[in-house]
């Protein structure tokens, strides 16, 4: 069987393009199919009595931005999604507000919301200046999380609904 040069060139081009496409597809697949952990923290929902006070507290002191607000349901419930980057739902806090009702005070419902912070002293000054009580002053703790760091400075405050908020500044 005799193959002309133009046929051979066409076969070579098609084969090269096919191999390139397979290579690009494999590269793209390896980037999108990277192994993921068996679970990831996505967001937490908390019941709030005063939606605007909670929004102000978490945005002012911890940098959360509103991403989405659901319309009021017939029962009067509103969900407001907030995240650090203000774009997606990763690492979010969702405020659940029932219009005309205060937040439920079930002591076992939520223990503490923990934030890693860079300047705990500065944050505490801002919280106190805004009228928020520090319920546990900054305390240095050795071996707080030995797999992460050797020590940390820890303090606690309460959010507008009385939820415990732990602030941790990691030390080298």
Walk me through what this model shows.
With 172 residues, the protein is an alpha/beta fold. The protein is 29% helix and 32% strand. It contains 3 helices and 8 strands, in the order αβαββββαβββ. It has a 4-stranded mixed β-sheet with strand order 1-4-3-2, covered by helices on one side. Strands 5-8-7-6 form a 4-stranded mixed β-sheet, covered by helices on one side. The protein is globular, with a radius of gyration of 26 Å. The N and C termini lie far apart (74 Å).
Q: What is the topological layout?
A:
Layout: H1 5-32, E1 43-48, H2 51-62, E2 65-69, E3 77-83, E4 92-98, E5 112-116, H3 120-129, E6 134-142, E7 151-158, E8 164-171
Parallel strand pairs: 1-4, 5-8
Antiparallel strand pairs: 2-3, 3-4, 6-7, 7-8
Give the overall shape, derived from the CA principal axes: globular
Mean pLDDT: 73
- Identify the strand order in the major beta sheet: 1-4-3-2
Determine the structural class based on helices, strands and strand pairing. Answer: alpha/beta
How large is the count of helical segments?
A: 3
The radius of gyration over CA amounts to 26 Å
* Largest β-sheet summary: 4 strands, mixed
């Amino acid at each position: 069987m005799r193959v002309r040069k133009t046929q051979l060139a066409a076969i070579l081009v098609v084969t090269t393009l096919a191999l390139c496409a397979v290579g690009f597809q494999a590269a793209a697949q390896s980037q999108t199919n990277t192994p993921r952990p068996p679970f990831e923290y996505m967001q937490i929902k908390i019941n709030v009595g005063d939606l605007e006070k909670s929004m102000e507290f978490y945005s002012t002191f911890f940098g959360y931005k509103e991403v989405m607000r659901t319309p009021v349901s017939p029962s009067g419930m509103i969900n407001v999604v907030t995240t650090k980057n203000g774009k997606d739902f990763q690492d979010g806090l969702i405020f659940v507000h029932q219009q005309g009702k205060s937040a439920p005070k079930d002591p076992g419902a939520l223990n503490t919301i923990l934030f890693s912070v860079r300047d705990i002293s500065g944050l505490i000054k801002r919280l106190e200046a805004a009228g928020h009580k520090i319920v546990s002053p900054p305390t240095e703790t050795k071996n707080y999380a030995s797999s992460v760091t050797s020590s940390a400075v820890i303090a606690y405050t309460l959010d507008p609904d009385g939820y415990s908020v732990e602030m941790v500044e990691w030390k080298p």
